[in-house]
Amino acid sequence: VSINIGSAVEIEWSSISGETYQVQYSTNLVSTNWFDLGGTIMATNAANNLLDSANGVPSRFCRVISD
């Protein structure tokens, strides 16, 4: 789930407390190149989020993977 907040996008996902997650992005869905968006996040709740500054950033796709 993503929500626009001014010049940023909040990415929120369901998680398991104690698990580690990495948010990644790509500029298109055809490419197999995904890049880390920030560092890993240790879940502390059933839902976690990351605020991504979208100021001046071209469109991109995000995914969340568990480590």
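Second entry:
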Amino acid sequence: DIGVTGVQTCALPICAHRPAAVLGAQQPVVTLTAGGQTFDIQGRPGDSRWLAAVKSGLTAEVPALEDLTGLTAPGGTIAIAEVDDGLNNHGISYDLASRTLDIPQSAGPSIVANALARIWFNSTFFSDRWVNEGLAAFAEQVAGTGSYLPCSAMPAYPGAGAPNLAAWTTLDATSTIAKQNVADWQVGASCAFFAEVAEAMGPGNFRNVLVAAAARRPAYGVGSQAAAGASPVTVRQLLDLIDEVGMVPASAPDPEMAQKLLAGFGLFDTATLASRSQARASYHALTTRAGSWSIAPAIRAPMQTWDFASAGAAIVTAGQILDLRDAVEKTIPSYSPNGSAVQKDFETAAIQDDLDALRSVMQKMSDASGTIARATKLRDGSHSLLQTIGLVGTDVDTPIKHALADLQSVEPGKAQSDAQSAIDEFDGASNVGLLRASMAAGLLGLALILAFSLALAVRRRRRRDLGGTIPGDVAPPEEADRP
């Protein structure tokens, strides 16, 4: 989709960007659309080789770059100007204000790809120069084999002292060979970093990292993505995105690969990286233990701000909560906290105090579950004769059912009380049974006495009715001697 507007007086944004002495009074302006992005190309008069190289590169590299990065071109019109070869990045630069891209006379497929990558990778995207330079160099691979010099191996540092990516080296006409070597190393090391992590996480996850960074989406998911024009992504944020959005989903063999590659390059201190390693290991262990439960903002927020001391304390508390959750489930197999207020409070805890409060509730839940288990065991176990007598007419099922319902609705106090009331019934059943048995024995004895007394009374009455004796009876001696 290429169109030539012809020769015209230069009136494009590039004219404000490049001096007239460089541009010339009139130049051919070629308008080209590639991958949905429009470009106005202005080469120097007579330099058909440069123009052909840029046109060919745009047509091939813009769609390839969008596929590599997952990022779409910004739209509008971007001007491209031919400039002299330079010491820094061959003279490639991108002016954000005028939306003008400088591509040097030596333009070839890899140089065009590097230049185009700067439409995305510049100071508005990432705050660190090495990140933008490394990504632009890495983007050269879309130019293909033969045009791209792979940067997959981390180069040896050629300078004196410690290697440093934070302090970017710029060159001028007076720069020494040693300084040029350091500058080349910085570009090579930055490019090699992205080449190695991209290979480890795979192309899909690599795109996800860049898309998340472009949207300013937080690595640990706290807060919403930022609007366009937000602050550039810091190297800390980028490292978190690489690990959480790229390496973790890819199940990379070494989850600390990116951190190890950057260690010793003047970007982080050793103690901070050690704390980060420990916190991330604890964080992911907790994530595994939590199962379907999400990790609370009280943990994710300090992880995001690299406040690893606070994150570590919150992780310990959350682990204790999960221990109590698991203990309750083991004690009461019919109980599940999933979907309950316990899960909601765990997932929404905003600060350490929220986790502390939930831990207290869960301790009460654990205590109540033990009481319910004891009550259930007493109900289902064998009972003595006195307990059986004492439990006659007693309803112990209802308080146990109520206790289970109380546990599900996260009312540990009521659950404890209901279960204890059932236990109290069992504990007092023997005494009640003894009392009932004693009362029954007493009533039986009284009944026997009454029956014996009634039998004697009946016999005496019959004796009177028959004239004194009953056949078979032996009369009392005093009555036999009476005339």
